[in-house]
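Sat 14:20. Reprocessing the chain from the morning session after the first attempt stalled halfway. Input below, unchanged.
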Amino acid sequence: MAIRCSDTLTMPGGEQRAETLIAAAPSRAWQRLSTGAGAHGPREFDWTRIPVRPGWEPGRGHWLLARRSISDPAEIAYYACYGPRRSSTTDLAWIAGSRWHIEIGHRWYPSSCTVFSWSCSSVIAGFLFGRVPSSSGVVAGRACPALA
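Finished this time. Tokens:
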């Protein structure tokens, strides 16, 4: 789920702003990843993640994910993520980047998604990680056409 840079996340030392946590990440923590082809070529960004929320459920994890523009490193998008503990930065980046695919599919087939107020990422995350929210835009057990 996309969040603001000023949103706070729970860390062992207390609440901290997303932008502060990412600013403290070492340069080696960033990975250049593509989240697929876009209208103007590959959608490549630098990505990093930081584990957040102490007291994880067994086998599950919470992360702060950040996407940094290659052309303008000051342009950073932030995401709050939840999923299997084994999820890699690549997995989380792909899910965050897949929102575009869902939105395009929704424009092409608007009647296929019943409730579109949920974060599109939750639809993808549900299918990838085996948890589909009851109002996640799934019709008769089938995802929006962009996922099919």
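The radius of gyration is 16 Å.
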